[in-house]
């Protein structure tokens, strides 16, 4: 592995250099996987409180403003994933000082972007929620929920950045602990604000916002005091490198923006076909899906720095072992997640809505169709993350664009004309299946460039 002569005797051993086979890979990725699963769990609990103790109109309102929140998550994910690939590659090459400067600049950029979008969102709040399709019934809930969340936008962006860069720094367990602390805080405050205090959807937003603060505060404290490979220093990055970070991370940005657009299309379609009850059913579906795919998201996020590190160090033999292990894990997990979704769909939906409600009937019918997407989505998620880790933002963006927007938008616009509501639920499984096929073609096509097969 290439190292810097000046730093090789005093730089700490990097945790990424100790990951090789399946077991060590799972040990390294495990905290990130737990973190993402727990994040999905407390996100879904947040929505359950709204559904059970406010009403399903407030639940629909949360999904109406989700596309706007997706833009914010997309920006932070773009900086985090693109930056992680650059930083991990530099550490693999032995340039730890450069990695630290880049790391510091990315955190500062996330903070400034958060402040900018917080002010912008509050200034145009009413225009935004109307543009997202809020009806007169849903607009007051949207205004209250989104307005409160916008106050915490800087913390939200830093949370997403630290979630990725903690793993790059070789500290996934600390990241997991902070996310769990954030999640437990969110759940506790949801109960306090919504049930005893009766704050409604404003309480849900305030609980989420306060919980957003915990991981960034923990990250700032840790990296200010850290003596490891990554810590805060004088920020710096060449303009070409920053452009490369944005381009390489653009696949994740595209994925988030695409999800925002498709969520908007889903909302508009469901309002037309089934009214506010349809949007509530869709919200249950969306949050349940997020919870179930967090395993794939966490695994892909957890192994990305390892792939980038070995790409930077030129260790092709280890890279091949890692890819084989990843594909095995994705294959087994896909079958398990699909089985769990099919067997537990009705019980999961029953947590959100009473079994005799129209919302329950719509969601239960749709989930048993939608669940087939879990057989394929893990491959697309991992393939996009793989190419980002290898600094091939173009291919990563294509895979992400296919599975989160292009294919699903086409199916969503066409299938409901022939199959009604069933066409809405069929759009995602068909899109994920074709995107997985495209991902396999790209992985095979680029095998000679990256030596992972």
From TrEMBL:
One of its GO terms (molecular function) is antiporter activity. Its main location: membrane. It comes from the Bacteria. It is found in: Cell membrane. Keywords: Antibiotic resistance, Cell membrane, Membrane, Transmembrane, Transmembrane helix, Transport. It comes from Desulfovibrio porci. GO terms for cellular component: plasma membrane. InterPro entries: MATE_fam, MATE_MepA-like, MATE_MepA_subfamily, MdtK-like. It is a multi-pass membrane protein. Belongs to the multi antimicrobial extrusion (MATE) (TC 2.A.66.1) family. MepA subfamily. GO terms for biological process: response to antibiotic. This is Multidrug export protein MepA. It holds the Pfam family MatE. The keyword Magnesium does not apply. The chain crosses the membrane at residues 28-51, 71-91, 103-125, 145-167, 174-194, 200-224, 245-270, 290-311, 323-349, 369-390, 397-419, 425-444.
